[in-house]
Amino acid sequence: MDDFKVFTGNAHPALARAIADYLGMPLGRAEVFEFANENIFVRILDNVRERDTFVVQSICSPVNKSLVELLIMIDALKRASASRITAVIPYYAYGRSDHKDQPRVPITGRLVADLLTTAGANRVLTMDLHAAQIQGFFSVPVDELTALTLLSDYFRKKAIKDLVVVATDIGISKRARDMAARLDAPLAIIEKRRLGNTDKTEILNVIGDVEGRPALAFDDEILTGGSILNAVDTVLKRGATEAYICCTHALFTPPWSDRIVTSPVKEVVVTDTVPISDGKMLDKITVLPIAPLLGEAIHRIHTGISVGAMFE
User: Which residue segments constitute the domains of the chain, with CATH numbers given?
Assistant: First the structure.
């Protein structure tokens, strides 16, 4: 294992340690801290010359600091003569900004991709991008893993009778359809529209039959919970008997905790692509670890084995 190294920034060190444990190796040593003037300093403490290197860093809160840390770590590894640098980004921020939906707005998802490749990333490993086209923003190879297997296996073991999977909007319907197929369940879709540049949405219609069935609301990420909890309330009003929620990225920004406490949702199942603080860990929340999935992908990238075969 000495021919490759796994490093981490400060965004999610617990996940990086779990990945290193899966690989049976210590984390690479690095200093990553912020000076009093808010400038970020990075020093790689291990020899990485001609070595395969991986940097684990979710672009999560504080988002912009996490991003700059990642860019500087990549630059430091490039200048230390690493043979290949893979940015392992379990959660890719700015993914919602993947096209121009208004005049004179940026495509920030593309900008972040350009920054990563300019910094020196030779490859990107990520999970459940908000939109598949983000892969095309990169001029380097991108391996996109999915948590669908983890999430579907969990609910298959629960054996909830007559379950219906509910896509929280039309944009996520393809992935929700894949989840429904894995659970041998029908699919319903919430038709909604976003109200301006806010987190507020208006539900227009429910496509599909939810009456008399337990409902599993599915999305790629949860922020304040407004959209997905509105979807839950809607399907319950349409006759669903009970409701569950699952997603890959549990960002859980306020007022999520207040909303979920008073919500009729029975269980929220997520992964740990971003750190979930103790204050956000409520009784209703189940967290599935993704370190084995990422660790296996890192092993396969390093040894030249197919990553896609993991999901066949």
Answer: 4-146+291-311 (3.40.50.2020), 148-288 (3.40.50.2020)
